UniProtKB/TrEMBL annotation:
Biased composition (Basic and acidic residues): 311-324
Region (Disordered): 311-331
Domain Formyl transferase C-terminal: 213-295
Species per Swiss-Prot/TrEMBL record: Natronocalculus amylovorans
Pfam families per record: Formyl_trans_C, Formyl_trans_N
Entry superkingdom: Archaea
GO molecular function: methionyl-tRNA formyltransferase activity
SUPFAM superfamilies: FMT C-terminal domain-like, Formyltransferase
Domain called Formyl transferase N-terminal: residue spans: 78-186
Any single Gene Ontology cellular-component annotation: cytosol
PANTHER family: METHIONYL-TRNA FORMYLTRANSFERASE, METHIONYL-TRNA FORMYLTRANSFERASE, MITOCHONDRIAL
Protein name per UniProt: Methionyl-tRNA formyltransferase
Amino acid sequence: MNIPPDTSIVYASCTRPGYDVLETLFDKGVEISEIVSITPEMAERHTVAKYRSFDRIAAKHDVPIYYPDTYSMTAVDTDHFATLDADLMIVNGWQRLIPGEVLDTFTHGVLGNHGSAYGLPKGRGRSPLNWSLIEDLDRFLLSIIRLDPGVDSGAVAATRKFDITEFDTIETLYHKVTVSIQSMLLEIIEPICNGSHTFEQQIGEPTYYPKRNPEDGEITWTDPTRRIYNLVRAVTDPYPGAFTHHEGTRIDIWELIPFSSDIAFSTPPGEIVEAFSTGDFVVSTPDGTALVTEWDADNWTPERGMQLRVDGEPTRVDSPDQKHHLTSSDS
């Protein structure tokens, strides 16, 4: 890789996928002058999903780590980066906007990434991977962008498309994101640092996904089986997970699959129609049944005939009443 001598590149991340990308950059000979991350205490305070400490990789490659005073960064951090006088920052897995004052301290700007099933500017905002699973979409267009003070509105440096299959979960989508980001960065870092790369402005009317909260993971058993399946695989580990209730006991559901539309039961949605010695159990749905294969609950065991809470929270951000919030192909 023919990056100009003395080029200073900063890498900002605090997540497992971000860690994997950084390992690849090091393996391919990209020199990083500083890593920016957050402490475990800050990650816990901000409930950062997929958090990973970068201490080990920093020590392995003898690269200093800078910890901002706050996750959102302040004037103190602007001063730090101005003094650092670096050429490029790569941000990957930083769940806060980078202040414009920080962006301006880098000669070639700051690279981030975002995407949606429709490609930018559609699907800006929160959790586009989770939303793509919830909306049962079959592709994702991920872009490396040069960050500006707006929300995912920067000029596009590169884009990769990958499929979303019916077997994907949020974890497997992050694997696809990792591979895609690695590929794009290895193509564009050199021309960006040489000043020869062309960025393309986003074109079209933007749409935005809303923030998801842990309570949005409650299952509505009157939904079709496929919709329930999509919710569970979209919010499973490392996210807070889908859940339901039985007589006040919360059951976290980490894995659920459609069971059968042919094996019919004359039971209302949400009733457990079979419980197996393995701990798996089958729940009735309006169009068939769903098999729960991984779950957690305190002092609770599934039994045939139990009725799970059916309706969930009507204010759930992806409920039918809130559908107008979501990106669609007509947007």
